Amino acid sequence: MAGRGDATRARLIDAARTLVEERGYFGAGLNDVIAAGRAPRGSLYHHFPGGKDQLVAEALAVSGREVTELIAGLAAEASDTAELIEAVLDALADRMEAAGYAKGCPIAAVALEAASGNDVLQRVCADVYGGWERALADRLIADGHAPGRADDLAGSLLALVEGSLVLARAQRSRTPVERARRSARTMLGS
Amino acid sequence: MAGRGDATRARLIDAARTLVEERGYFGAGLNDVIAAGRAPRGSLYHHFPGGKDQLVAEALAVSGREVTELIAGLAAEASDTAELIEAVLDALADRMEAAGYAKGCPIAAVALEAASGNDVLQRVCADVYGGWERALADRLIADGHAPGRADDLAGSLLALVEGSLVLARAQRSRTPVERARRSARTMLGS
DNA sequence: GTCTATAGCCAGATAGAC
DNA sequence: GTCTATCTGGCTATAGAC
C-alpha cells in the first residue's frame, strides 16, 4: 500500500543519508534528521521502530544501491574498466565539489565509526562495499581478466577510489581524485 | 618545567588518540577520555583550555608525527619505494588486526566528520596527510622519479593505503590491505 | 594544579492525545 | 498514522573548594 506515510519515510531516509554522509553516525543527530526530513519525532519511531540504528542502516543500504546503479549505468557507456573507473571518479568528484566537500563516500564515515562497537552497521557497510567490489570485478572479468586477478584488482581500485575521496575531503581539493584517475589506468596496465 | 602535570596531559592525549581513532570525533566523548586517561574533569580544561577541539587537534598531530616517523624508520631499511609501502602496510595491518579492527588510520574518521563544519580540525587533518605525502614523494624522488610525477604517485599511494584501511575495517579482514600491497607494486611499475 | 559538583544543553527514546 | 510533550541520560563546559 503506497500512501503518504511512505513519503514521510522516504524523506527521513533521505535526510539521514545526507547528514550521515556529512557528519557520520555519531555526528548526525536525530533532531537534525527530523528537522531536515520535516517529520515529527513520533513518525520516526513509527516508521523505524528500531530507532537510529535501523534508520541509518536503511539509509546506508539505499546509498549503496544508488552507487551500484551509478556504476552499472556508467559501465554501459565505458569501453573498458579504466574508462569506467574514470567516469565513476569524475561523478563522485563533481558531487563532492558541488557540496563544498561535505560529501564523498556515503558510507565511509560510518564504516570507520562502527568498525568496532556496532555489529549491525558494520555488516551493512561490509555488504555495500562487497557489492561495489563485485560490480567492478564483473566488469574486469568481462574485459578478459581471470576471476581471481579480477577480485584483487577490483578491491584495489575500490581502495584507491575510497582513499582518494578521504584525502580530497580532508584537503578540500579535487587533486587527489585526479591523481587516482591517472593511477587507476597505470594499475590496469593500459 | 617537566612535572606530574605533563604526565596527566600526556595520558589525556594518549586516551584521546585511541578513542578518536576507534570512534571518531563525535563518538569519542570526553567522559570516556578522562576515564581512560585517569584524569579528573578539571585537569582536562586546565591542560586544554580550548576544550575538546584543542585536545583532539593535539592528539591528531601526535598521531601524525608518529606515522611520519614510522615511514622514516621503514624507509631507512627499504631498498626502494615499493618495499617501503609494503612495510608500511604490513605495520598498519598488524596494528589493525591486533586491535580487532578497532584501529586503522588514526585521523581518517575525523577527516571525514570534520571535512565540513570544523575548520580547525580539517586543517590539522590536511596538514597531517600533506606530511605523509611529502615523506613518500621525497623517497620517490630519491629513487629517481621526477618531482611532479613523484607528487602524483605519492598521493595515489597514500590514497591506496587509506582506502585499503577503510575497506579492511569495514570488512574486518586483512585482505584489502594485502591486495593494496600487490597493487602498489604494479603502480610503481616494478 | 588537582579534583568535585553541577550547570546548561542536547541526545535518543517514549507516551498518549488526536 | 500524525504529532506534541516529556522522560532520562549523556554531552561539553564551568565554578570554586582545596
Could you walk me through the main structural features you see in this protein, from its secondary elements to its overall organization?
Chains A, B: InterPro entries: Homeodomain-like_sf, HTH_TetR, Tet_transcr_reg_TetR-rel_C_sf, YxaF_TetR_C. Chains A, B: Residues 29-48 bind DNA. 2 copies of one chain form a homodimer. By secondary structure, chain A is mostly helical. Chain A has a single domain (53-187), classed as Tetracycline Repressor, domain 2 (Orthogonal Bundle), CATH 1.10.357.10. In chain A, 79% of the residues lie in helices and 0% in strands. Chain A is built from 9 helices and no strands. Chain A has helices spanning 4-27, 30-36, 41-47, 51-77, 81-98, 108-113, 119-142, 147-171, 175-187. In chain A, helix 4 packs parallel to helix 7 (119-142). The longest helix of chain A has 27 residues, at 51-77. The N and C termini of chain A lie far apart (51 Å). The model of chain A has no long low-confidence stretch (mean pLDDT 95). At the A-B interface, helix 1, helix 6, helix 7, helix 8 and helix 9 of A face helix 1, helix 6, helix 7, helix 8 and helix 9 of B. The structure holds a DNA duplex (18 and 18 nucleotides).
Q: What's the helix and strand layout?
A:
The structure is a homodimer of 190-residue chains.
Chain A: H1 4-27, H2 30-36, H3 41-47, H4 51-77, H5 81-98, H6 108-113, H7 119-142, H8 147-171, H9 175-187
Helix pairs in contact in A: 1-2, 1-4, 4-5, 4-7, 5-8, 5-9, 7-8, 8-9
Chain A binds a DNA duplex (18 and 18 nucleotides) through α1 and α3.
